[in-house]
Amino acid sequence: MYHIEFPKCIHGYKWFGKGYFKYLVLYVLRDGPKHGYEISKAINSLFKGIYEPSPGLLYPTLKSMEKNGLITSNIDAENRRIYQITQHGLKELSKREKKIAEMLSEINSFLDSGVIELIKALTGIMRTLRIYYPELDSEKINKICSLLRDVRRKIQTIAEGEE
């Protein structure tokens, strides 16, 4: 039977522990200045396309990091805010860079284990549920729950080689 070992750095459905997102931002900014979208895409690339920070996480974090002197920003010719790591940010990153590298290595090993397509499929289901949930009445919710229980049983059957 194939067993997937989840990385220690995944706490529930979170990819990293509390407070580490800002270090991940510093980690991608150490390679040079980037605007918010580029930061988001760089993080997405580190996670092989299955995690991309929401603007609701990224931009408040950037604002806080700038306030705390970890990064600076300016507006470029295309009217985009460009973020750059400061010396203070580099110093703070150096304190956690080994931990960040270990976390990314652990996550990438996990993603290399063949689970990436499963995560993408489950993410698609979650996205669909999030979109339609406000319109669902209790009857539809019960039908969906029943379907998901059936899917879980079918997955177990497949995984145990009984199909």
Annotate the secondary structure layout:
Elements lengths: L20 H9 L4 E2 H11 L8 H13 L3 E5 L5 E5 L1 H46 L5 H22 L4
Antiparallel strand pairs: 1-3, 2-3
Helix pairs in contact: 1-4
Could you describe the 3D structure shown?
- This protein has 163 residues and is mainly α.
- The protein has a domain of 95 residues: Winged helix-like DNA-binding domain superfamily/Winged helix DNA-binding domain (Arc Repressor Mutant, subunit A), CATH 1.10.10.10.
- It has five helices and three strands.
- The chain has a three-stranded antiparallel β-sheet.
- Strand 2 and strand 3 form a beta hairpin.
- Helix 1 crosses helix 4.
- The longest helix has 46 residues.
- The N terminus is likely disordered.
Throw out a few tags for this protein.
mainly alpha, 7% strand, disordered N terminus, three-stranded antiparallel β-sheet, 163 residues, Arc Repressor Mutant, subunit A
State mean pLDDT (0 to 100 scale).
85
Q: CATH superfamily of the domain at 21-115, please?
A: Winged helix-like DNA-binding domain superfamily/Winged helix DNA-binding domain
DSSP strand content: 5-15%
With helices defined by DSSP (H or I, 4 residues minimum), what is the helix count? 5
Through-space gap between termini: 14 Å
Main beta-sheet annotation: 3 strands, antiparallel
**CATH class annotation of the domain at 21-115:** Mainly Alpha
Count the beta strands.
3
**Share of helix, binned:** 55-70%
SSE sequence, one letter per element: HEHHEEHH
CATH architecture of the domain at 21-115: Orthogonal Bundle
